[in-house]
Amino acid sequence: MLKKYSEQIQRFGRSLLLPISVMAPVGMVLGISGAFVQSYMIARFPFLATPAINTTLLSLRTIAGVIFNNIPLLFAMGVAYGMSKKDKGIAAFASVIGYLVLLMTMNQYLAVTKHLAEAAAISQSGQIVILGIQTINVNVFGGIIAGLVAGWATDKFFNLELPISLAFFGGKKSVAIITMGIMMVIGLVLPTFWQLFVSALSSVSFILMDKIFGPFLNLTINRMLIPFGLHHVWNAMIRYTEIGGTYIINGTTYTGVLSAMNEILFNLGPNSSYWSMMPSLTRFEAQNQMVITLFAFPAIGLAMYKTAYAQNKKMVKGLVITLVLTAMLGNVTEPLEFSFLFIAPLLYGMYAFVLGLASVALALLGTAVGYIRGTIFDFAIFGVLYESSNWINIVIVGLVVAVTMYFMFKWFILKFDVKTPGREESPSLDNTLIKEKRYADIAKIVVEALGGKKNIVGVDNCITRLRIDLVEVKVVDRKLLESSGCAGIFFPSAKHIHIVYGPLVEFVRNAVDDELKK
To answer: Which of 212, 280, 314, 518 shows the greatest Cβ crowding within 10 Å of its Cβ?
Structure first.
């Protein structure tokens, strides 16, 4: 039973990847356009005031803003799509309907009980206007609930048979109808318990609000959850719920870190008096990731290269450069972390501990580099180009972390003879198939190595990993699987395997699906 729940939690964590992956590039557009229309940025770069450029940037900000203004809806569809095993399209469709019904049901509850707030007091009353509907601000949880219900209803009722007189409403059509009914009940019950739930979350948030323990706990937990794919759940809680705190800006209450940070970062700017709040918000976000991708990873990669056997150095060099650039340019850290996580868990724990301390250092220094990604582009845009971001702190702390990581990894690898890339004979070092994008060849190897079609129950993927449910794991040919060019193989549960291919994993997954259809 515990294993079943663990697998469901992992599936839930994976379901959050779709909306998050959409938010990342859209957030970049929002960040660039929002930054370049600020008065202080125009003063620094006068050409930004050109009508054509300014109008384009304002339009882009408005267009990108609609995504962030409807984050719960994205989560509803993403969770439904990820959780459903039977018909993902119907699940996503039902989740949208369910979410709309939830909003309107809570709206009617407020109206009937005469708790519908006046326009000037909406935010202070814990209410919000979404898609033109004034409702209780359940934030991203409303979307997640709708997604979970729709995903469950799809798998349970997508093939529902009804009496002949009602047959038209059976099958897939019943999913949306059942989801609507359930969400209506939830919409009537949720307001009663929501305040208690908010109070409970708020009572826990004081731990994360601590100036020292909060940043350390946040980043350490984030890193330790990566092997299970649950760090997305943790991040979502910090960004969108009361666990991340509540913040009042110009009389409006913002729940979670992200909405408050976006308001200050993209709308108010460094010249606002509210900019002083930024360090308390950014200590949970991108500045920590920048230390990892821009400083820790190059140092770890160099340590791996230096400790590799002489005959393997050339191959390791190419592999390490690829993994480091993947993180620096795309904010994808799993491929490099997986190269040592499972063979040296103690080293990974030390790695997470050092990063936790770095997070505390950045917070104490008043670093205010905003947004959620840790790429070199984000560092330049939200750090270097923003006044009062104190971006130099990232460089200072990052260099200390880099030196620490290099000597720590080099010592540990040599001391305990850790088989990092280049220190053992491993076909996985040859990633030719991935480099040449020979996905069909990779798929054939994967299917064969996993025991053939009959042994594969289900195929899924996250940002970097192919996730496959198996009938029996004993028949898996690990050596053959390594020849496919994967960066790592591990078994998180008895009948489930993860195969790491990096950011191209989705194309591998599609090829595997095609291979299974033959």
So the answer is: 280
